Amino acid sequence: MKKVVMILALAVCCGVPAAKAVDGFLVLRASTPLIVSGAAGLRLGQPAGHHRPTVQAEAGIGGGKLSFGWDNTGEGRTGHALKIAFLQTWIEPVDLDEDQSFVGLEVEFSVRKLLLNLGGYRRVSSGDDDWVASAGLGFIF
User: What is the per-residue pLDDT for 22?
Assistant: First the structure.
């Protein structure tokens, strides 16, 4: 599993030209399966307004996510992102067993600071749930 995460991180970082800027952001979100979560991320590369390589970590009641992708959400009137994500469940995830690992794709859309995310994940650990859908609504700061 660590190899998968490392490969994803390297793939994103290899696409980054010399980092001209690094911008941090925070997200507060209600979602399935994480229930309520907070995220912190970094956008690398070009000035604001353009899609930039992004690294994001999120932790909530039902689990956590580590994602890598291209993002410009929350930077203008509208924005969107495409991310590859690793999802780990714990404590009380919505409609899932705890202690399962998933890898998948997630898309995000923003209108000003309002953020909507949708994702699909495939289980990569032992457990009962082969595929998982994710959806959430939150705010980006």
Answer: 86
Ordered by start, the domain boundaries in the chain are 2-140
Quote the Cα angle for 43-141-59, to 5°. 75
Phi, psi angles (nearest 5°) of residue 2: -60, -35
**Alpha carbon distances (Å) from 118 to 21, 100, 140:** 28, 19, 15
Of residues 48 and 46, more confidence is placed in 46
Q: Phi, psi (5° rounding) for residue 37? A: -150, 165
Read off the pLDDT band of 134 (50, 70, 90).
very high
Predicted TM-score (pTM) of the model is: 0.81
**Cβ distance 132 to 96 under 8 Å?**
yes
Mean pLDDT value across residues 75-90: 94
Cβ 67 vs Cβ 83: under 8 Å: yes
